[in-house]
């Protein structure tokens, strides 16, 4: 039997990022709100998607919503 990981998969920053995307904001707007470049934001989104095993940002949003994280 496999035990669940003790550390959360997503940080508070990751969840904020997904919340902004879930709100329908374009990535360039999200980047400005978070004070990072669009390139940095895209890299963060890719890492979040990789961490939870999805391909697209919208899938990451759905994943977080289904788990009650955002």
TrEMBL record:
SMART domains: HTH_LUXR (SM00421)
Ranges for domain HTH luxR-type: 7-64
InterPro entries: Sig_transdc_resp-reg_C-effctor (IPR016032), Tscrpt_reg_LuxR_C (IPR000792), WH-like_DNA-bd_sf (IPR036388)
Domain of life where this protein originates: Bacteria
GO BP annotation list: regulation of DNA-templated transcription
Single GO MF descriptor: DNA binding
Keywords: Membrane, Transmembrane, Transmembrane helix
TM region(s), chain numbering: 15-34
Keyword Cytoplasm attributed: no
Protein name, as recorded: LuxR family transcriptional regulator
Organism of derivation: Intrasporangium oryzae NRRL B-24470
Taxonomic placement: Bacteria, Bacillati, Actinomycetota, Actinomycetes, Micrococcales
């Amino acid at each position: 039997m496999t035990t669940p990981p003790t550390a959360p998969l997503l940080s508070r920053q990751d969840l904020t990022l997904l919340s902004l995307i879930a709100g329908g904001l374009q990535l360039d707007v999200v980047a400005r709100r978070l004070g990072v470049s669009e390139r940095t934001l895209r890299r963060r989104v890719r890492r979040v998607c990789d961490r939870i095993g999805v391909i697209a940002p919208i899938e990451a949003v759905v994943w977080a919503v289904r788990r009650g994280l955002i």
